[in-house]
Design brief:
By secondary structure, the chain is an alpha/beta fold. The protein has helices at 37-43, 69-82, 95-106, 125-141, 147-154, 157-162, 164-175, 179-190; strands at 2-5, 8-15, 22-26, 48-52, 88-93, 111-117, 205-208. The model has no long low-confidence stretch (mean pLDDT 96).
C-alpha cells in the first residue's frame, strides 16, 4: 500500500491481527521492506506489523538531495500518525537502527521499545570517506556496480556458499535501489552523531551486534 507522510509517498505493508501491539520494521541501506520476509510470519503471530521502504528505497519516493536521521525519524513518526498508531515497538537494522535512535530521541512519545540491530551511533572520518566512493559509484556506474561488493561485505563466506536463492533476492534489492535514494541515505549515515545523546532515550532498548559484522562489530 502507499501512504503519504512527511511530504512524500511511502510504500508500506501491514501484517498481523488488528488490535495486536504495533511493531514497526525499518530497513537497512540498499534494501527494502522485503528484507523482513523471513521474520514477518513469526512477528505477525504476536504483533500488528508495519513494514515500510525507507525514503529513497524500494517503491517509496526518492527525492534528490542529502537526508539525515532526524528526517528519517520524522518519516517514521509521520507514518505512524498516517496509520493511526499512537506508539509502537520499533525494530531497525543498520540504517533502520540508526533511524530507531532518532525516533527514540526526537519522538519518545511514539516509542514503546527499540530494538537496534547491527548499527552504530556515530562515524569516524575513515568510515565517512568510504561512503563518498560508494556514492560516486552509484551515480557514475549505477547500483549494479555495488551489488557484489555489498553482498560480500554483508554475508559470511559460508552463507554465500549455501544460500544462493536468498542472496539473489538481496542482489535484486541492492540493484533496484534508486541511486538518488542511496546517496541521500548514505549522506545521512555520514552525518550520524547520536552517541552522546543515547542516554536520553527513556524507553527499553535492545542492542544486537554480530561478531562477524565488519561495519558495526560488538
Amino acid at each position: 500500500m502507499k501512504s503519504q507522510a512527511n511530504g512524500i509517498t511511502f510504500n508500506c505493508r501491514i501484517d498481523g491481527a488488528e488490535g495486536a501491539p504495533w511493531l514497526m520494521l525499518s530497513n537497512s541501506l540498499a534494501t527494502n521492506l522485503s528484507m523482513w520476509d523471513g521474520q514477518t510470519a513469526d512477528f505477525a503471530q504476536h504483533y500488528r506489523v508495519l513494514r515500510y521502504d525507507q525514503r529513497g528505497h524500494g517503491a517509496s519516493d526518492a527525492p534528490a538531495g542529502d537526508y539525515d536521521f532526524d528526517m528519517l525519524a520524522d518519516d517514521a513518526a509521520a507514518l505512524m500518525q498516517a496509520h493511526g498508531i499512537e506508539a509502537c515497538h520499533f525494530l531497525g537494522l543498520s540504517m533502520g537502527g540508526m533511524t530507531a535512535m532518532g525516533l527514540g530521541l526526537n519522538h519518545p512519545e511514539r516509542v514503546r521499545s527499540l530494538t537496534i540491530c547491527n548499527s552504530r551511533a556515530d562515524v569516524t572520518p575513515e568510515f565517512r570517506q568510504i561512503f563518498d566512493a560508494r556514492i560516486a559509484i552509484a551515480f557514475d556506474q549505477g547500483m549494479e556496480a555495488l551489488v557484489e561488493t555489498t553482498v560480500e561485505r554483508w554475508f559470511t563466506e559460508n552463507l554465500r556458499a549455501t544460500e544462493p536463492a536468498f542472496l539473489d533476492d538481496v542482489r535484486d534489492m541492492v540493484r533496484t535501489t534508486p541511486p538518488e535514494g542511496y546517496a541521500g541515505c548514505a549522506r545521512a549515515v555520514q552525518s550520524l552523531d547520536y552517541m552522546a545523546r543515547l542516554k536520553a532515550i527513556d524507553k527499553p532498548v535492545l542492542f544486537i551486534a554480530g561478531a562477524q559484522d565488519i561495519a558495526t562489530p560488538p
